[in-house]
Amino acid sequence: MGDFSAYIKLIAHSPIFKAIIMGSILLNTVTFAISSSLKPTTSNIIYLNVLDGIDSFFLSLYCLEFLIKIHSFGRSYWFNGFNCFDFGVLICSLVQTVLSHTGAKNWGVIKVMRSLRALRPLRSVSLIGGLQVVVTALIATLTGSFIHIILLLTLLMFVYGIMGYYVYGYYNPIDEYWGTFEKSFLSLFILITAEGWTDVSKSLTTLYQNFGAYAFITSFLFIGHFIFGNLFVAVVIEQIDRATAGYEKMMDIKKSTVVSKKKQKARQVQENEIKSILNQMKCGDQQSFPRAVLDMYKHVRRDVFTTLADVKGNELWVESMCQEYHRVSAITNKTRLTHREVLKKSIVCFFKKLITFIIHYC
């Protein structure tokens, strides 16, 4: 049972498993788009049945994914909001499938459940870290200071809406933009988005060609669009930075956990190998001792994992490096001296031969 649980956890944390689920989500999105574009006619019934079969296959794969994750993570599975969202989408898909195959009469519920299948592509958020950062930042923005900014902007629009209604629409109720308080409020929202604000501006400047109309439009555009718009952007960027820092911290914790596990495994391997060598020494098996040392050396070089920081902080490693450096320096100096001696002897020999040659022929 323990080996089975370990195998399931290995599958749940495997990048291949995540790639398979991600690929199935993308393919299911494509099949869902094709099935939505086909009308339930006689000529298309075969294609729709095939697409329903493919959809059932993907749904079975999602159920298998849920079982693997719930067995691997246990209760911690429910502490992740993205996992809860995946479970909700899975339940909606299962309910829709059950209602469709049991011949339920309530077609309105079935249509709603079918429309909720469009949420399946959003399951990719739980598999992509970058999307998780963005979604986390948006949720934090909507539940944080964003509410206070919206409240302040609403109060500002309320004040300007009352002013615009009583000044420009009270005596002209048929005005398209300022005839009622509701129209005035909607016109201010158009000014905030800066989409079609020129039409709203012309409705005032054409009828009321005075400084007050221009000041009213300009002041609200400056406060509502520029100041509050940039304030929204600043809040979102701040939340994205926080979410990114949290995600990087979480990834660092995961990496340190993996490193510690590999270190522990490496120590266990080394201890087992050393114990084996000691046992061989006690038994007096001198012939197999060098072979055991060589096997341990090969095994450690191939499998043992360690970080460069740990190696540099090891006193034995530093001492070994110093000894090796002094040894290489000594060899280098000795080689350099040898080259000098050889060069001297070569030069002396050359001049001796040159002098002998000159004396002999002169």
* SSE order, one letter for each helix or strand: HHHHHHHHHHHHH
Strand content: under 5%
Q: Which range best describes the helical content: under 10%, 10-25%, 25-40%, 40-55%, 55-70% or over 70%? A: over 70%
How would you describe the oligomerization state of the chains in this entry? Answer: single chain
User: What characterizes the major β-sheet?
Assistant: none
For the secondary structure, the number of strands is 0
Instruction: Tell me the structural class.
Output: mainly alpha
Tally of separate helices? 13
Could you tell me the mean pLDDT? 77
What gross morphology would you assign? extended
Estimated radius of gyration = 39 Å
> Which stretches of 5+ consecutive residues score pLDDT under 50?
301-305
Description:
By secondary structure, this protein is an all-alpha fold. Helix content is 82%, strand content 0%. The protein contains 13 helices and no strands. It has helices at residues 2-12, 15-37, 45-73, 81-101, 107-115, 129-143, 145-169, 181-193, 197-205, 211-283, 288-303, 308-312, 315-361. Helix 2 runs antiparallel to helix 3.
